[in-house]
Protein backbone atom coordinates (compact mmCIF):
# COMPACT_ATOMS: atom_id res chain seq x y z
CA UNK A 1 0.00 0.00 0.00
CA UNK A 2 1.55 3.31 -1.12
CA UNK A 3 0.29 6.80 -0.45
CA UNK A 4 2.25 9.58 -2.15
CA UNK A 5 1.98 13.29 -2.84
CA UNK A 6 4.53 15.58 -4.48
CA UNK A 7 7.54 13.32 -3.88
CA UNK A 8 6.36 12.49 -0.35
CA UNK A 9 5.26 8.89 0.20
CA UNK A 10 4.67 6.22 2.83
CA UNK A 11 4.58 2.55 1.84
CA UNK A 12 3.12 -0.14 4.10
CA UNK A 13 4.09 -3.76 3.48
CA UNK A 14 0.56 -4.83 4.41
CA UNK A 15 -2.57 -2.97 5.47
CA UNK A 16 -4.12 -5.92 7.35
CA UNK A 17 -2.20 -7.91 9.98
CA UNK A 18 -3.46 -10.66 12.27
CA UNK A 19 -1.20 -11.61 15.19
CA UNK A 20 -1.60 -13.85 18.22
CA UNK A 21 -1.75 -12.41 21.71
CA UNK A 22 1.65 -12.49 23.40
CA UNK A 23 3.66 -12.51 20.17
CA UNK A 24 5.83 -9.85 18.50
CA UNK A 25 4.77 -8.14 15.28
CA UNK A 26 6.64 -6.03 12.73
CA UNK A 27 4.52 -3.53 10.81
CA UNK A 28 6.62 -3.02 7.69
CA UNK A 29 6.95 0.54 6.46
CA UNK A 30 9.17 2.77 4.31
CA UNK A 31 8.94 6.44 3.35
CA UNK A 32 10.47 8.91 0.93
CA UNK A 33 10.80 12.66 0.55
CA UNK A 34 12.67 15.13 -1.66
CA UNK A 35 16.43 15.04 -1.12
CA UNK A 36 16.56 18.73 -0.29
CA UNK A 37 14.53 18.40 2.93
CA UNK A 38 15.52 17.15 6.38
CA UNK A 39 13.40 14.83 8.50
CA UNK A 40 12.83 16.33 11.95
CA UNK A 41 10.52 13.78 13.52
CA UNK A 42 9.03 10.31 12.93
CA UNK A 43 5.91 9.14 14.74
CA UNK A 44 3.65 6.09 14.84
CA UNK A 45 0.23 6.66 16.34
CA UNK A 46 -3.26 5.26 16.88
CA UNK A 47 -4.67 8.20 18.84
CA UNK A 48 -5.01 11.86 18.06
CA UNK A 49 -5.51 13.08 14.51
CA UNK A 50 -3.33 13.21 11.43
CA UNK A 51 -2.05 16.67 12.37
CA UNK A 52 -1.63 16.22 16.12
CA UNK A 53 -0.81 12.54 16.71
CA UNK A 54 0.03 10.92 20.06
CA UNK A 55 3.38 9.15 19.69
CA UNK A 56 3.17 5.47 20.70
CA UNK A 57 6.51 5.84 22.48
CA UNK A 58 4.92 8.22 24.97
CA UNK A 59 1.78 6.12 25.52
CA UNK A 60 2.00 4.29 28.89
CA UNK A 61 0.03 1.36 27.44
CA UNK A 62 2.99 0.62 25.12
CA UNK A 63 5.77 1.35 27.62
CA UNK A 64 8.84 -0.74 26.84
CA UNK A 65 7.04 -2.68 24.09
CA UNK A 66 7.51 -0.57 20.94
CA UNK A 67 10.48 0.40 18.79
CA UNK A 68 10.92 2.16 15.45
CA UNK A 69 13.39 1.13 12.78
CA UNK A 70 16.46 3.36 12.73
CA UNK A 71 17.46 2.47 9.17
CA UNK A 72 17.43 5.23 6.57
CA UNK A 73 13.91 5.77 5.18
CA UNK A 74 12.65 2.67 6.97
CA UNK A 75 9.79 3.22 9.39
CA UNK A 76 9.01 -0.34 10.47
CA UNK A 77 7.19 -0.50 13.81
CA UNK A 78 7.84 -3.40 16.20
CA UNK A 79 5.39 -4.19 19.00
CA UNK A 80 6.28 -6.87 21.55
CA UNK A 81 4.13 -8.87 23.97
CA UNK A 82 0.95 -8.12 22.03
CA UNK A 83 -2.32 -7.60 23.89
CA UNK A 84 -5.83 -7.69 22.53
CA UNK A 85 -6.10 -3.99 23.44
CA UNK A 86 -3.36 -3.32 20.85
CA UNK A 87 -5.88 -4.01 18.08
CA UNK A 88 -6.13 -0.70 16.23
CA UNK A 89 -5.30 1.21 13.04
CA UNK A 90 -1.63 2.26 13.07
CA UNK A 91 -0.40 5.23 11.04
CA UNK A 92 3.06 6.61 10.36
CA UNK A 93 3.78 10.34 10.11
CA UNK A 94 7.04 12.14 9.41
CA UNK A 95 7.76 15.84 9.76
CA UNK A 96 10.35 17.73 7.74
CA UNK A 97 11.61 21.29 7.60
CA UNK A 98 9.43 21.74 4.51
CA UNK A 99 6.19 19.85 5.13
CA UNK A 100 4.66 17.01 7.14
CA UNK A 101 3.16 13.81 5.73
CA UNK A 102 0.94 11.03 7.14
CA UNK A 103 0.57 7.66 5.45
CA UNK A 104 -3.13 6.89 5.05
CA UNK A 105 -5.20 4.83 5.59
CA UNK A 106 -2.68 3.05 7.83
CA UNK A 107 -2.37 -0.57 8.93
CA UNK A 108 -5.13 -2.46 10.74
CA UNK A 109 -3.70 -4.77 13.40
CA UNK A 110 -5.93 -7.42 14.96
CA UNK A 111 -4.62 -9.27 18.01
CA UNK A 112 -6.24 -12.60 18.77
CA UNK A 113 -5.94 -15.37 21.34
CA UNK A 114 -5.86 -19.05 20.39
CA UNK A 115 -8.68 -21.35 21.42
CA UNK A 116 -9.70 -24.93 20.75
CA UNK A 117 -13.08 -25.45 19.08
CA UNK A 118 -14.64 -28.89 19.63
CA UNK A 119 -16.97 -30.43 17.03
CA UNK A 120 -18.80 -33.53 18.29
CA UNK A 121 -20.95 -34.19 15.23
CA UNK A 122 -19.78 -37.78 15.17
CA UNK A 123 -20.73 -40.28 17.86
CA UNK A 124 -17.31 -41.71 18.77
CA UNK A 125 -14.84 -38.92 18.12
CA UNK A 126 -14.43 -35.16 18.02
CA UNK A 127 -12.75 -32.81 15.57
CA UNK A 128 -10.63 -30.22 17.35
CA UNK A 129 -9.67 -26.98 15.61
CA UNK A 130 -7.03 -24.52 16.82
CA UNK A 131 -8.70 -21.21 16.03
CA UNK A 132 -8.10 -17.49 16.09
CA UNK A 133 -10.54 -14.63 15.57
CA UNK A 134 -8.71 -13.49 12.41
CA UNK A 135 -6.75 -15.21 9.65
CA UNK A 136 -3.06 -15.50 10.49
CA UNK A 137 -0.75 -14.12 7.83
CA UNK A 138 1.25 -17.27 7.20
CA UNK A 139 0.82 -21.01 7.53
CA UNK A 140 2.13 -21.97 10.97
CA UNK A 141 2.49 -25.48 12.30
CA UNK A 142 0.74 -26.40 15.51
CA UNK A 143 1.41 -28.38 18.66
CA UNK A 144 -1.36 -30.28 20.40
CA UNK A 145 -1.51 -31.27 24.07
CA UNK A 146 -3.63 -34.00 25.64
CA UNK A 147 -4.12 -33.80 29.40
CA UNK A 148 -1.21 -31.37 29.51
CA UNK A 149 1.24 -33.57 27.60
CA UNK A 150 2.49 -32.95 24.07
CA UNK A 151 1.12 -35.21 21.34
CA UNK A 152 3.93 -36.12 18.94
CA UNK A 153 3.70 -35.74 15.15
CA UNK A 154 0.57 -33.59 15.19
CA UNK A 155 1.35 -30.30 13.46
CA UNK A 156 -1.95 -29.48 11.76
CA UNK A 157 -4.53 -26.96 12.90
CA UNK A 158 -7.04 -29.83 13.18
CA UNK A 159 -6.89 -32.93 15.31
CA UNK A 160 -9.25 -35.88 15.71
CA UNK A 161 -9.76 -37.23 19.21
CA UNK A 162 -11.77 -39.96 20.89
CA UNK A 163 -14.72 -38.73 22.90
CA UNK A 164 -13.23 -39.62 26.26
CA UNK A 165 -14.91 -37.42 28.89
CA UNK A 166 -11.78 -37.40 31.06
CA UNK A 167 -9.51 -35.87 28.39
CA UNK A 168 -8.68 -32.21 27.82
CA UNK A 169 -6.84 -30.65 24.86
CA UNK A 170 -4.84 -27.51 24.20
CA UNK A 171 -2.98 -26.12 21.16
CA UNK A 172 -0.09 -23.76 20.47
CA UNK A 173 1.85 -22.42 17.50
CA UNK A 174 5.19 -24.18 17.02
CA UNK A 175 7.99 -22.10 18.46
CA UNK A 176 5.63 -20.27 20.80
CA UNK A 177 4.62 -23.03 23.17
CA UNK A 178 4.65 -20.65 26.13
CA UNK A 179 1.41 -19.14 24.83
CA UNK A 180 -0.85 -22.14 24.35
CA UNK A 181 -4.63 -22.01 24.39
CA UNK A 182 -6.63 -22.86 27.53
CA UNK A 183 -7.30 -26.58 28.00
CA UNK A 184 -10.84 -27.65 27.04
CA UNK A 185 -12.89 -30.83 27.45
CA UNK A 186 -14.01 -32.89 24.46
CA UNK A 187 -17.22 -33.98 26.19
CA UNK A 188 -19.19 -32.31 28.97
CA UNK A 189 -17.15 -30.12 31.31
CA UNK A 190 -15.75 -32.60 33.82
CA UNK A 191 -12.39 -33.50 32.25
CA UNK A 192 -8.96 -33.28 33.85
CA UNK A 193 -7.52 -29.80 33.31
CA UNK A 194 -5.56 -26.91 34.82
CA UNK A 195 -5.67 -23.34 33.50
CA UNK A 196 -3.60 -20.50 34.96
CA UNK A 197 -5.02 -17.03 35.59
CA UNK A 198 -1.80 -15.32 34.45
CA UNK A 199 1.00 -16.59 32.26
CA UNK A 200 3.46 -13.90 33.40
CA UNK A 201 3.77 -11.93 36.60
CA UNK A 202 6.44 -9.35 37.39
CA UNK A 203 6.80 -8.31 41.02
CA UNK A 204 9.07 -6.12 43.12
CA UNK A 205 11.53 -7.66 45.56
CA UNK A 206 10.17 -7.72 49.12
CA UNK A 207 6.53 -7.65 48.04
CA UNK A 208 3.92 -10.44 47.95
CA UNK A 209 2.31 -12.14 44.98
CA UNK A 210 -0.67 -14.41 44.31
CA UNK A 211 -0.39 -17.10 41.59
CA UNK A 212 -3.75 -18.68 40.79
CA UNK A 213 -5.22 -21.42 38.65
CA UNK A 214 -8.49 -23.22 38.09
CA UNK A 215 -8.48 -27.02 38.02
CA UNK A 216 -10.79 -29.99 37.68
CA UNK A 217 -10.41 -33.71 38.19
CA UNK A 218 -12.59 -36.20 36.31
CA UNK A 219 -12.06 -38.75 39.04
CA UNK A 220 -12.88 -38.22 42.69
CA UNK A 221 -11.61 -37.89 45.27
CA UNK A 222 -8.38 -35.92 44.75
CA UNK A 223 -5.79 -37.52 47.01
CA UNK A 224 -3.20 -34.73 46.89
CA UNK A 225 -2.60 -31.36 45.25
CA UNK A 226 0.31 -28.95 45.46
CA UNK A 227 2.33 -26.18 43.81
CA UNK A 228 5.90 -26.67 42.60
CA UNK A 229 8.46 -24.65 40.62
CA UNK A 230 10.63 -25.36 37.61
CA UNK A 231 14.14 -26.65 38.19
CA UNK A 232 13.29 -28.19 41.56
CA UNK A 233 11.59 -31.41 40.53
CA UNK A 234 8.02 -31.58 41.79
CA UNK A 235 8.69 -30.78 45.45
CA UNK A 236 5.73 -29.23 47.27
CA UNK A 237 6.61 -25.58 47.87
CA UNK A 238 5.04 -25.66 51.33
CA UNK A 239 7.75 -28.19 52.26
CA UNK A 240 10.62 -26.40 50.48
CA UNK A 241 13.08 -24.83 52.94
CA UNK A 242 13.68 -21.87 50.60
CA UNK A 243 10.04 -20.87 51.04
CA UNK A 244 9.71 -21.72 54.74
CA UNK A 245 7.29 -19.33 56.42
CA UNK A 246 6.71 -17.43 53.18
CA UNK A 247 4.15 -19.49 51.26
CA UNK A 248 0.56 -20.54 51.76
CA UNK A 249 -2.02 -22.17 49.51
CA UNK A 250 -5.67 -21.16 49.70
CA UNK A 251 -8.90 -22.13 47.96
CA UNK A 252 -11.51 -19.39 48.11
CA UNK A 253 -13.81 -21.49 45.93
CA UNK A 254 -13.93 -25.06 44.72
CA UNK A 255 -11.62 -25.69 41.81
CA UNK A 256 -9.50 -22.54 42.30
CA UNK A 257 -6.11 -22.72 44.01
CA UNK A 258 -3.98 -19.70 44.92
CA UNK A 259 -0.31 -19.81 45.86
CA UNK A 260 0.75 -16.76 47.88
CA UNK A 261 4.46 -15.98 48.25
CA UNK A 262 5.53 -13.25 50.67
CA UNK A 263 8.77 -11.29 51.03
CA UNK A 264 9.84 -12.06 47.47
CA UNK A 265 13.51 -12.48 46.57
CA UNK A 266 15.15 -12.59 43.14
CA UNK A 267 15.76 -16.32 43.61
CA UNK A 268 11.97 -16.79 43.60
CA UNK A 269 11.97 -15.99 39.87
CA UNK A 270 10.80 -19.21 38.23
CA UNK A 271 7.92 -20.93 36.46
CA UNK A 272 5.27 -22.21 38.88
CA UNK A 273 2.96 -25.18 38.29
CA UNK A 274 0.00 -26.81 40.01
CA UNK A 275 -0.52 -30.58 40.13
CA UNK A 276 -3.11 -32.95 41.54
CA UNK A 277 -3.37 -36.70 41.95
CA UNK A 278 -6.19 -39.22 42.20
CA UNK A 279 -6.06 -42.97 42.65
CA UNK A 280 -5.46 -43.62 38.92
CA UNK A 281 -4.44 -40.25 37.43
CA UNK A 282 -1.88 -37.51 38.05
CA UNK A 283 -1.91 -34.09 36.40
CA UNK A 284 1.71 -33.09 35.99
CA UNK A 285 1.59 -31.04 32.83
CA UNK A 286 4.24 -30.11 30.29
CA UNK A 287 2.13 -27.05 29.45
CA UNK A 288 3.53 -23.71 30.63
CA UNK A 289 2.53 -22.52 34.09
CA UNK A 290 2.92 -19.00 35.48
CA UNK A 291 6.32 -17.37 35.08
CA UNK A 292 7.25 -15.07 37.95
CA UNK A 293 10.00 -12.46 37.56
CA UNK A 294 11.19 -10.66 40.69
CA UNK A 295 13.14 -7.42 40.22
CA UNK A 296 14.54 -4.56 42.25
CA UNK A 297 12.35 -1.51 42.76
CA UNK A 298 12.53 0.91 39.80
CA UNK A 299 15.29 3.52 39.82
CA UNK A 300 15.07 6.76 37.88
CA UNK A 301 17.75 7.19 35.20
CA UNK A 302 21.01 8.83 36.21
CA UNK A 303 23.24 10.61 33.71
CA UNK A 304 27.00 11.08 33.85
CA UNK A 305 29.39 13.06 31.64
CA UNK A 306 32.94 11.97 30.81
CA UNK A 307 35.38 13.61 31.12
CA UNK A 308 33.92 15.48 34.06
CA UNK A 309 36.27 18.46 33.81
CA UNK A 310 36.72 21.02 31.05
CA UNK A 311 36.47 19.54 27.57
CA UNK A 312 39.16 20.41 25.01
CA UNK A 313 38.06 21.53 21.55
CA UNK A 314 38.53 18.66 19.11
CA UNK A 315 38.36 16.13 21.92
CA UNK A 316 35.50 13.80 22.77
CA UNK A 317 32.75 13.79 25.39
CA UNK A 318 30.50 10.89 26.35
CA UNK A 319 27.10 11.04 28.02
CA UNK A 320 26.00 7.85 29.81
CA UNK A 321 22.70 6.92 31.41
CA UNK A 322 21.55 3.94 33.45
CA UNK A 323 18.18 2.99 34.90
CA UNK A 324 16.40 0.12 36.58
CA UNK A 325 14.51 -1.49 34.92
CA UNK A 326 16.52 -1.58 31.71
CA UNK A 327 15.49 1.22 29.36
CA UNK A 328 15.68 2.19 25.70
CA UNK A 329 17.47 5.51 25.21
CA UNK A 330 17.30 8.02 22.36
CA UNK A 331 19.50 11.13 22.39
CA UNK A 332 18.47 14.50 20.95
CA UNK A 333 20.07 17.90 20.60
CA UNK A 334 18.25 20.68 22.42
CA UNK A 335 15.45 22.31 20.37
CA UNK A 336 15.65 19.55 17.74
CA UNK A 337 13.40 16.51 17.27
CA UNK A 338 15.71 14.50 15.03
CA UNK A 339 17.44 11.62 16.78
CA UNK A 340 21.22 11.88 17.26
CA UNK A 341 21.92 8.46 18.73
CA UNK A 342 20.42 5.58 20.68
CA UNK A 343 21.72 3.36 23.45
CA UNK A 344 23.15 3.90 26.91
CA UNK A 345 25.99 6.12 25.67
CA UNK A 346 26.19 9.12 23.34
CA UNK A 347 29.64 10.33 22.26
CA UNK A 348 30.67 13.54 20.49
CA UNK A 349 34.06 12.72 18.97
CA UNK A 350 34.94 16.17 17.65
CA UNK A 351 33.91 18.72 20.24
CA UNK A 352 33.42 22.10 18.52
CA UNK A 353 32.75 25.67 19.70
CA UNK A 354 29.06 25.45 18.72
CA UNK A 355 28.63 22.78 21.38
CA UNK A 356 29.54 25.32 24.06
CA UNK A 357 26.84 27.13 26.04
CA UNK A 358 27.00 29.13 29.24
CA UNK A 359 24.25 27.09 30.87
CA UNK A 360 23.72 23.48 29.95
CA UNK A 361 20.62 21.48 30.83
CA UNK A 362 20.20 17.81 30.12
CA UNK A 363 16.56 16.81 30.06
CA UNK A 364 15.35 13.29 30.42
CA UNK A 365 11.94 13.47 28.78
CA UNK A 366 9.06 11.20 28.04
CA UNK A 367 10.14 8.68 30.64
CA UNK A 368 7.49 6.07 31.28
CA UNK A 369 8.06 3.96 34.35
CA UNK A 370 5.72 1.06 34.83
CA UNK A 371 5.69 -0.14 38.42
CA UNK A 372 3.87 -3.13 39.89
CA UNK A 373 2.60 -2.27 43.35
CA UNK A 374 1.78 -5.38 45.33
CA UNK A 375 -0.54 -5.17 48.37
CA UNK A 376 0.22 -7.56 51.22
CA UNK A 377 -3.17 -9.27 51.37
CA UNK A 378 -4.57 -9.00 47.87
CA UNK A 379 -2.10 -8.63 45.01
CA UNK A 380 -3.19 -6.19 42.36
CA UNK A 381 -1.06 -5.48 39.30
CA UNK A 382 -1.09 -1.73 38.89
CA UNK A 383 0.56 0.53 36.38
CA UNK A 384 2.29 3.55 37.80
CA UNK A 385 2.89 5.65 34.76
CA UNK A 386 5.02 8.72 34.96
CA UNK A 387 6.35 11.31 32.61
CA UNK A 388 9.41 12.52 34.42
CA UNK A 389 11.55 15.53 33.69
CA UNK A 390 14.98 15.81 35.27
CA UNK A 391 17.24 18.85 34.94
CA UNK A 392 20.97 18.47 35.29
CA UNK A 393 23.33 21.44 35.27
CA UNK A 394 26.83 20.79 33.96
CA UNK A 395 29.94 22.73 33.13
CA UNK A 396 30.17 25.54 30.56
CA UNK A 397 31.98 23.45 27.95
CA UNK A 398 29.48 20.61 27.59
CA UNK A 399 27.00 20.23 24.74
CA UNK A 400 23.24 20.43 25.00
CA UNK A 401 21.41 17.17 24.41
CA UNK A 402 18.11 15.59 25.26
CA UNK A 403 17.77 11.93 26.12
CA UNK A 404 14.46 10.11 25.71
CA UNK A 405 13.99 7.01 27.83
CA UNK A 406 11.33 4.33 27.43
CA UNK A 407 11.38 1.58 30.02
CA UNK A 408 11.62 -1.93 28.66
CA UNK A 409 10.29 -3.84 31.63
CA UNK A 410 6.65 -4.76 31.65
CA UNK A 411 5.15 -4.71 35.15
CA UNK A 412 1.74 -6.02 34.23
CA UNK A 413 0.33 -9.42 34.97
CA UNK A 414 -0.72 -10.85 31.64
CA UNK A 415 -2.39 -13.99 30.45
CA UNK A 416 -1.12 -14.43 26.92
CA UNK A 417 -1.20 -16.89 24.06
CA UNK A 418 1.83 -16.37 21.85
CA UNK A 419 1.95 -16.88 18.13
CA UNK A 420 3.28 -15.28 14.99
CA UNK A 421 2.06 -13.05 12.19
CA UNK A 422 1.54 -14.51 8.77
CA UNK A 423 -0.11 -14.38 5.29
CA UNK A 424 -3.64 -15.62 4.69
CA UNK A 425 -3.98 -19.39 4.64
CA UNK A 426 -6.91 -21.52 3.64
CA UNK A 427 -6.27 -23.83 6.57
CA UNK A 428 -6.71 -21.20 9.28
CA UNK A 429 -10.35 -20.88 10.29
CA UNK A 430 -12.04 -17.87 11.85
CA UNK A 431 -14.14 -18.00 14.98
CA UNK A 432 -17.80 -18.25 14.19
From TrEMBL:
Alphabetized InterPro entries for the sequence: Ig-like_dom, Ig-like_dom_sf, Ig-like_fold, Ig_sub, Ig_V-set
Gene3D superfamilies assigned to the protein according to its UniProt record, in alphabetical order: Immunoglobulins (2.60.40.10)
Ig-like domain sequence ranges: 105-174, 182-295
SUPFAM superfamilies: Immunoglobulin (SSF48726)
SMART domains in the record: IG
Spans through the membrane: 360-383
Keyword annotations: Membrane, Transmembrane, Transmembrane helix
Name listed for the protein in its UniProt record: Ig-like domain-containing protein
Species in which this protein is naturally found: Astatotilapia calliptera
